[in-house]
Amino acid sequence: MIEGLDGAGKRTLANGLTEALHAQGRTVTSHAFPRYGQSVHADLVRDALYGRIGDLSDSVYGMAVLYALDRRGAADQIRKDLEQYDVVLLDRYVASNAAYNAARLRQDENGEFVEWVRALEIDRFGLPVPDLHLLLRVPVEVAAERAAKREQDDDTRARDIYESNSDLQTRCGIVYDGLANINWLAPWQVVDGRSNVKFHSLLEPLFTP
Ligand SMILES: Nc1ncnc2c1ncn2[C@@H]1O[C@H](COP(=O)(O)OP(=O)(O)O)[C@@H](O)[C@H]1O
Ligand SMILES: Cc1cn([C@H]2C[C@H](O)[C@@H](COP(=O)(O)OP(=O)(O)O)O2)c(=O)[nH]c1=O
């Protein structure tokens, strides 16, 4: 699973890892969440994030449920892919829901919230537990600059209300670090995303049991 702030370089890393794995002769597939344009729940998320469903985006739990339902709709496909491919790369997964939405609550509510996300998505919805999280870590300012640049280059990736809120991004980075420290849900590996990421050096942990 590839996790990190908006603009951290997750999609770039997913593409780089795919190429590096193909070069090793491995089969790879990838999914990105939210699945905008492919699921009713993801499209509702997008409407909410761009302020088109009243004050729905103010509800932390309401938004988290929508993101979780989007993933639940992909669960069967992910399970099939895990049987069929050597590697299944996910650009954001359950941990994004924990990090982004915990970051919108008071700090003393975070522990309870991330456990609620785990219980909802893993226990109740039956989503597969990931083998590894790769946390692409960059300073908030760098992520924001990259997200702004990406917005100019690719008009399908305009910044939403989460992405343009730098306080939220800062808190989200802190929650991600906390999740990585306790290896929440599965092992975490922190990747320095400030310079060019060495894709090949990341391949070994993918195959270490
Ligand atoms: N290691 C890197 N160094 C410099 N720029 C990068 C790096 N990784 C990604 N970028 C650039 O930053 C922007 C955001 O990258 P992207 O992979 O779309 O991020 P994310 O999927 O995390 O939002 C893109 O314009 C991309 O070309
Ligand atoms: C997948 C996911 C994303 N998010 C947040 C992180 C992002 O700020 C926002 C949108 O995801 P994002 O990856 O930015 O989508 P795109 O790059 O296609 O615009 O949703 C959650 O809060 N929970 C989740 O489960």
Give the topology, please.
Layout: E1 2-4, H1 10-23, E2 28-32, H2 40-49, H3 60-72, H4 75-84, E3 87-91, H5 94-102, H6 110-124, E4 133-137, H7 140-153, H8 166-181, E5 188-192, H9 203-207
Parallel strand pairs: 1-4, 2-3, 4-5
Helix pairs in contact: 2-3, 3-5, 5-6, 5-8
Domain Thymidylate kinase-like: 2-161
Protein name: Thymidylate kinase
GO molecular function, one term: kinase activity
Tell me about this structure.
With 209 residues, the chain is mainly alpha-helical. The protein has a single domain, classed as P-loop containing nucleotide triphosphate hydrolases (Rossmann fold). Helices cover 51% and strands 11% of the residues. The protein has nine helices and five strands; from the N terminus they run E-H-E-H-H-H-E-H-H-E-H-H-E-H. The strands form two sheets. A three-stranded parallel β-sheet has the order 1-4-5, sandwiched between helices. Strands 2-3 form a two-stranded parallel sheet. Helix 3 (60-72) runs antiparallel to helix 5 (94-102) and helix 5 (94-102) packs across helix 8 (166-181). The model has no long low-confidence stretch (mean pLDDT 94). The structure holds adenosine-5'-diphosphate and thymidine-5'-diphosphate. Thymidine-5'-diphosphate binds next to helix 5. Belongs to the thymidylate kinase family. One of its GO terms (molecular function) is kinase activity. Its EC number is 2.7.4.9.
Query: What ranges have pLDDT less than 50 throughout 5 or more consecutive residues?
Result: none
Percentage of helical residues? Answer: 40-55%
Name the CATH class.
Alpha Beta
Count of individual helical segments: 9
Fourth-level CATH superfamily: P-loop containing nucleotide triphosphate hydrolases
The distinct ligands, each listed once, are: adenosine-5'-diphosphate, thymidine-5'-diphosphate
What is the chain-wise order of helices and strands? EHEHHHEHHEHHEH
- Count of discrete structural domains: 1
CATH fold naming = Rossmann fold
* Average pLDDT level: 94
Largest sheet data: 3 strands, parallel
Approximately what portion of the residues adopt beta-strand conformation? Answer: 5-15%
**Order of strands across the biggest sheet?**
1-4-5
* 3D shape: globular
**Strand segment count:** 5
Level-2 CATH architecture: 3-Layer(aba) Sandwich
Radius of gyration equals 16 Å
